[in-house]
Specification:
The complex is a heterodimer of chains A (165) and B (240). Chain A is elongated and about 50 Å long. With 165 residues, chain A is an alpha+beta fold. Chain A is 48% helix and 11% strand. A four-stranded mixed β-sheet of chain A has the order 2-1-3-4, covered by helices on one side. Chain B has two domains: 75 residues, Ubiquitin-like (UB roll), CATH 3.10.20; 146 residues, 2-Layer Sandwich (Alpha-Beta Plaits). The longest helix of chain B is centred in the middle third of the chain and has 17 residues. The model of chain B has no long low-confidence stretch (mean pLDDT 95). Classes of the chains: A alpha+beta (165), B alpha+beta (240).
Amino acid sequence: MTAHASGDKRFKILEAHIKKFQARQDALIEVLHKAQELFGYLEDDLLLFVAHRLKLPPSRVYGVATFYHFFCLKPQGAHTCVVCLGTACYVKGSAKVLAAAEAAAGIKSGETTPDSQLSLLTARCIGACAIAPAVVYDGQVAAKQTPEMVLAQLEKWREPCKATT
Amino acid sequence: MAAKTLKIDGRQVSAAEDTTVLDAAAEAGIRIPTLCHLEGVYDAGACRLCLVEVAGTAKLLPACTTLVAEGMEVVTQSDRLRRYRRMTLELLLAERNHVCAVCVANGHCELQSLASEHGIDHVRYDYRFPRWGVDATHPRFGLDHNRCILCTRCVRVCWHIEGAGTKNVAGRGAKSFIIDDLNQPWGDSESCTSCGKCVLACPTGALFDRGSTVGEMERDRTKLEFIVNAREKKQWIVSE
């Protein structure tokens, strides 16, 4: 039997992961982590799959998925820029970094540009307070960021796109 | 089961060890204001109205989720508590759009009654006037997020008594809101049994019977207690 009617192999991998946790209901967060890692974001169909396998009401799964900033319910851009707004980063001026990124990308935090190239996100403390303000570019943590540095990175991402169009 | 003796407002009270301060006080005839507490379902400690002072603790503790302890000294009424309760109620009123004059629950609203009991004739905080919608997709019931105080009574009766788990809370902080299934229109929900317990449980006008107009939403909450007693204790208790 296939894990999912779509025949998508990723559901099979997710199912194996769920079995590793004996489909325990309190493994919901770990399972959602794996689901997002496999699919990039959590669409309704995927959340329902998780709900059914863990025997949880869909509303509970949706509630947990929307409570944590880490989980995305919409497709992300080709690049992601996560600005840490934790206390240490905030004190060191991460709000200015975020404002610069928002102005340059023309989107608010939590949104993705219409061309699906960039997602701008925020986090409340990524545990890198010593290098505040920290920004995570495509999973890579960058230290002591300034508005100029974030603009330079966004520009760097934009260049190859320009070259191809 | 061991009994604990404690003092509530200077009165000697004894209660079984798994009793909450709220229940022990009620047993002694001492009323503590509550909003999220609902007889028959587990407590969430969400509304913070039942905060009490406990000797030896600087923090105020919610009476609904604090268990009695031997020698505990509890104060349920003080200037400090009244000040905090008033503040909590004002913040609840400022958070969403509570317009009593046009509300289906006007005159039968627990938030409104508590506000008047605490002498709230104005709110000291800026109203936030958020833009929340109304879900009128269910054939029998409606959900107006503007009047919701996120007490989660509906979530708890749906899960604990009905067992459907249709309702839950999505998001966090001021952006939290009540959802059905995967945040879909209530009318499209596959798990909802249309039992109406959430509507019975709602303390404000957020959940209502469709077709009711200003002041018409009166609820008989003893029905919920009746069902819980019948299901869990196999006792069929009808209130006279």
